[in-house]
UniProtKB/TrEMBL annotation:
Keywords: Covalent protein-DNA linkage, DNA damage, DNA-binding, Hydrolase, Lyase, Protease. The keyword Lyase applies. It comes from Pseudarthrobacter siccitolerans. Residues 220-241 are annotated as: Disordered. Belongs to the SOS response-associated peptidase family. Residues 230-241 have a biased composition (Low complexity). This is Abasic site processing protein. PANTHER family: ABASIC SITE PROCESSING PROTEIN HMCES (PTHR13604:SF0), DC12-RELATED (PTHR13604). InterPro entries: SRAP, SRAP-like.
Length: 241
């Protein structure tokens, strides 16, 4: 199924995010810690914003599931939680954001479901032994709700999507698609608003290294969005004989 399952962990404090991603400001109210972030929920994202003539990195709060500016209603977002990195520069839903509105989506790790021969799906939690936070490559978009008046503060929705890629590394047995992860030393490159050439953006994506992540089998409790808490990322108890 790959990352289309779309669940990840984001439990760090806002201060830790500002520090790790070198962001200056927080816009909006960051969501509470979650060990089971699911599509259509509010998530923190990092983007470059022009603030009184100065370009600064800000921490914003976006709905996970991209709603393009031309969308008729918000429902399309639940289908656009992921964007294939190979085609973002062509797809009408993503091509404008790929050039103008790139973001980093902070995560501590994410879940994958590994299919067994008897058709069961075993949840794995993938994380980095070296980095406390990962930066998923993302895109964001603003959408005006046509049902609300122009001066309504709720009229403008900020939404985002996570880029995915094929997985070539040793973890290939766990999944076929995985999030595109931007290494810490390349955050500035990905967020650079002057990077607008399609070939340059594609080259940057193609040149990213494979992340080294550790998979851990976890409890099937993660399968339900209703379950949340740090116990979800603990190693699963071995099944009784």
């Amino acid at each position: 199924m790959g990352f289309m399952c779309g669940r990840y962990v984001m439990s760090k404090a806002t201060g830790d995010l500002l520090n790790h991603f070198e962001a200056k400001e927080v816009e909006g109210s960051p969501p509470p810690p979650s060990w089971n972030v699911a599509p259509t929920q509010s998530v923190p994202i990092v983007a470059e914003r022009l603030d009184e003539g100065t370009l600064d990195r800000h921490l914003l709060v976006a709905r996970w599931g991209l709603v393009p500016s031309w969308a008729k209603d918000i429902k399309i977002g639940s289908k656009l939680i992921n964007a294939r990195s190979e085609s973002i520069l062509e797809k009408p839903s993503f091509r404008k954001a790929a050039v103008k509105r790139r973001a980093i989506i902070p995560a501590e790790g994410y879940y994958e479901w590994q299919k067994t021969e008897d058709g069961k799906k075993i949840p794995n939690y993938l994380y980095s032994d070296k980095e406390p936070l990962l930066g998923f490559a993302g895109l964001y978009e603003w959408w005006a709700d046509p049902t609300l008046p122009e001066d309504d503060p709720e009229r403008w929705l900020l939404s985002c999507t996570v880029l995915t890629t094929t997985t070539q590394d040793a973890l290939g047995h766990v999944h076929d698609r995985s999030p595109v992860i931007i290494p810490r030393d390349r955050f500035a490159e990905w967020l650079d608003p002057d990077l607008t050439g399609k070939d340059d953006i594609q080259h940057l994506l193609d040149s990213l290294p494979e992340p080294t992540l550790t998979p851990r089998i976890v409890s099937p409790r993660v399968n339900s969005v209703r379950n949340n808490g740090p116990e979800l990322i603990e190693p699963a108890e071995p099944a009784a004989e």
